[in-house]
Amino acid sequence: MTEPLNILVVDDEEVILQVFMDFFQKIGTHSILTAQDGAEALEMFGKEKIDFCFTDLHMPGMDGIEFTGKIHELDNTLPVVVMTGYPSMDNAIATLKHGVVDFLVKPFHIGDIELTIKRALEQKALFVENMLLKEEVKGKERIDRLNRELSEKVRDLNILNMILRRVDWVTSSSDLFELIVNLSADITNCDEVLFHVMDETLEKPIPIASFQKKSQPDCDTGTGRKVNEDFPASSSNGAVAELLAKKISGGVPLLVDGGYDKALLDANIRSLVAIPFKIRKRLFGMLVAIDRNGSVPFTEKDLYYLNFLAERATFVIENVALYENIYENLFATLYAFVEAIEVRDPYTKQHSSRVTDFAVGIGKEMGCSDEQLDLLSFSGHLHDIGKLAIADSILLKPGPLTKEEFKEIMKHPVVGANIVGNLGLLTGEQQIILHHHERWNGGGYPDGLKGESIPFLSRILAVADVYDAMASDRAYRKRLLEEVVLKTITQGAGIDFDREVVEAFLSLHERDKLGPKHEAPGSDASCNECRLGP
């Protein structure tokens, strides 16, 4: 049984300090002291006997690394455990150099505290013993063993930290499955990895992501992995995969020596690890790592690493699925608003879709990134969503607007940006929508921005919007002749529009890649809908 300790907890978050105080008061085995920064904690070392220390890594003033270095100048045997919500390889190396014995990654389970203390005290005993052995020549073998254990501990921390760092940043399910198989390959040095999802209809696992070590020198791509063309990604034999799925259906990982299993030997498998992925107590998927040549057979440590990866990835899968579902519902709702506008105004039917196609086409012509094209696509569909707030008597008016009516129309970019912005998710799209009626010479609205102060993607959307507005039937006029539309936009280059955007638009139009060309008897170049003017 662990003897009572004086434990110091250093953290600038009151809630963390309270968690520790509540925990130790509940178990009643140790005394606890608290400090909110490194300087305050150092003062306690001159007043109190400290047996153990937990410290946050990131604190104002003196951070956890500097604090650990200073207290180990006073007592280099004191066990120190670092707490952090943002683990990284650099932090792990820096803290290990300063004598940190373990990590707690926030948020942590309350039960991890006592287990961490036990591990750290064991390591302290090993450390003290190591110091004594260094004074004795005959203790060399034990010192070597302790050093190997320390090296293994560092490797464990590095691998676990790599898993946390890379998995937690994934934002799409497809990227996550690819990451899972590639990480598994990096961790275990296997020949092949497959991730299966369980198909309830077919009642069998279906491989959706895979990795293969490369074995043909002429196929080397510079990654250090060579592809063996003798077996495809699905080579883990459907019957073998179904058998594994049944064996791990209870949620227990499996380590198999294929050297004694005829079915696996026939599938050219020397050993394998199978890890279940369970979500809400249901078997969702299965990770299978395969060793074919038997040169580096799997160990229980491989099983531990891959199971840790599975547990973390399962948590992320649930979050990503929830995130994607929220976004799908969000987009469906917003697009329904756009359809409501188009139902009110049949003249603008599918206007938003056409503007989006034109804007994305111009964006591609100008070399926009995939992220920028996505922003254009979303913003294009929603650029007129603010017209929900415009009365039908103004929106559907068959003639020119009065000054007061025009002021109401000018509100729709602000209303639209607010609708999107209030969701708290779409800052980039909000800005594009807000400024798509600004003009290069500062004569636009709502803010009268000028030149390059107008967001770049708003400038693209402005040209696409004006083109469709003039080339389509409106409530107050028929669509204009194509030559009139082109002349109006061309004359507006450098005045109303970004000249480079107009050049990209005209280049696309000339190659017939912008959309259908309109012909109509109208010749009035006024654009009442977009309020541009000739």
Question: Would you mind describing this structure in some detail?
Answer:
There is one protein chain. The protein is α/β, with parallel strands linked by helices. It has three domains: 6-166, Response regulator (Rossmann fold); 173-315, Beta-Lactamase, CATH 3.30.450.40; 345-510, Hypothetical protein af1432, CATH 1.10.3210.10. 49% of the residues lie in helices and 12% in strands. It has helices spanning 14-27, 38-45, 64-74, 89-97, 111-134, 140-167, 173-188, 238-247, 262-266, 300-344, 351-365, 370-382, 392-395, 403-409, 412-421, 427-434, 456-470, 482-491, 499-510; strands spanning 6-10, 31-35, 52-56, 80-84, 102-105, 192-199, 204-212, 254-257, 271-279, 282-291. Strand 9 and strand 10 (282-291) form a beta hairpin. The protein starts with 5 loop residues before the first strand and ends in a 24-residue tail after the last helix.
- Helicity range of the residues? 40-55%
Shape call:
extended
CATH architecture of the largest domain: Orthogonal Bundle
Mind telling me the CATH superfamily name of the largest domain? Answer: Hypothetical protein af1432
Strand order of the largest sheet: 2-1-3-4-5
SSE-based structural type? alpha/beta
How many domain modules? Answer: 3
The low-confidence runs, each spanning 5 or more residues with pLDDT under 50, are 216-236, 516-534
Helix-strand blueprint:
Layout: E1 6-10, H1 14-27, E2 31-35, H2 38-45, E3 52-56, H3 64-74, E4 80-84, H4 89-97, E5 102-105, H5 111-134, H6 140-167, H7 173-188, E6 192-199, E7 204-212, H8 238-247, E8 254-257, H9 262-266, E9 271-279, E10 282-291, H10 300-344, H11 351-365, H12 370-382, H13 392-395, H14 403-409, H15 412-421, H16 427-434, H17 456-470, H18 482-491, H19 499-510
Parallel strand pairs: 1-2, 1-3, 3-4, 4-5
Antiparallel strand pairs: 6-7, 6-10, 8-9, 9-10
